[in-house]
Sequence to fold (219 residues):
Amino acid sequence: MSSANAVLRKPIETPAEPEKRVRNRAATEQAILDAAKRLLAEEGFQNFGINAVARGAGCDKQLIYRYYGGLDGLVEAIGTDLGGWVQDRIPDDTGGMFLLTYGDLMERLALLFLDALRADPLMRRIVAWEVSENTEQVRRLSEARSKALAGWIERMRGSLTPPKGIDTVAVNAMIFAAIQHLVLSATISGQCAGLALKTAKDWEKAATALKRIVRGVYG
Fold:
C-alpha cells in the first residue's frame, strides 16, 4: 500500500448498492462522475478502472467511453469539477466578515480551506498524492485545484494589496502547505507535532494558531 493510500484510508459513507441505471444523459454523466470520485477517494488510482466505475454508477461501461472518452477524459472531468469544489466549499462572499485588508482576505481563505479539506476525503487523497505520486493524472487534479484557489483570491481581493516587501506566492504556499499537513496528520493519528486534533476544541485551537500566523505576516 502506498503512503498516499495509508494516509487516507479513512472510512467514508458509500452506497450499499450501485446506483440504479438512469436513462437521462445528464443524470448518467453525473452518476458516472460521482462514482469515479467515490472510487478515487476509497481506492486511489490503483483500482481506478472503467469496469469499477461502471459498477459504481450502475451503467454500461460503453457509456463512459461515449460520454467521457475513457479514463483520461473522466480524470479531466474530475479536474474540472474541482473548480466547482472551490466554489461550493469556499464561496465568493465574506461570511459577514469585513475584508478591509489583504490579511482579512487570507485569514478567511485559510480558515475556509482548513474546513473544506477536513470535510472532503477525495481532496485529502489528492493532496497526499501530490507528495507521493508524480503522475500526469495527479498533476492534472492538483493543477485544477491550485488554479481554482488562485482564481478565488483574484476575484475576492479587489483593490486589497499585501504589505510591501511580502512575497505572497511563497507565503501563501507555506500557509496552504501547513494546513494540508495538519489535516493529513490528523487523518492518520489525530495529532500533529504534539497538537491534538480530535475534538472541536482541538480544531478551534488550531484555527486560532492559523489566524495568528496569517496576521503575523500580513497584519
